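Journal club prep — side note

Before the paper discussion, L.F. wants everyone to see what a predicted structure for a comparable chain looks like in token form. Sequence:
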Amino acid sequence: MPDPASRSTAGLPLTRRRVTTAFAWTALGTATLGAAPALGDADDRPPESKRSVPAKLLDESPFVYVSPLGRDGSESTCHAELWYAWLDDAVVVIVSSDRWKATALARGLDRARIWVGDHGVWKTWYGGRNEAFREAPAFVGRGARVKDDALLERLLARYETKYPAEIADWRDTMRDGYADGSRTLIRYTPIG
């Protein structure tokens, strides 16, 4: 089944809308998340603390790109654009339970790097990879599987407003998959 992030709106792929980093910083205000105190020289700080994520971007961006982190802090090679909602100061997503974001949590890999914005489809149809998302504001979050029917309904309600043309094709699949375990609800809470 295709990822809902790759679905089209009125004939135009949803992933083709551009939310540039420059626009995010200038037009979306200065409220930030994830800015860490300097650990010394600015170049000594980890990449996720060199830029922060404007609060309005977290609320309004159509996508996040999530990469589970290994025990040594290395990124996985999975970075697909995902539908999400910013709820209770966390990024909330629902994914197929057999996908790496869910199976990484089952293996105890609960940290992930999260980029916020729309930088197009990560994996191209011809086998290439679009790495433009790496220029987006980012943070590290701690992921947790969540069994919370009320949170799922809040997520789907947010999807109704963020993805109005596509949600009808996915709502029941997400709800039924959550109920039967074939989909996993994940909350990524910013850390550090």
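L.F.'s comment for the group: The chain has six helices and eleven strands. Keep this in mind when we get to the figures.
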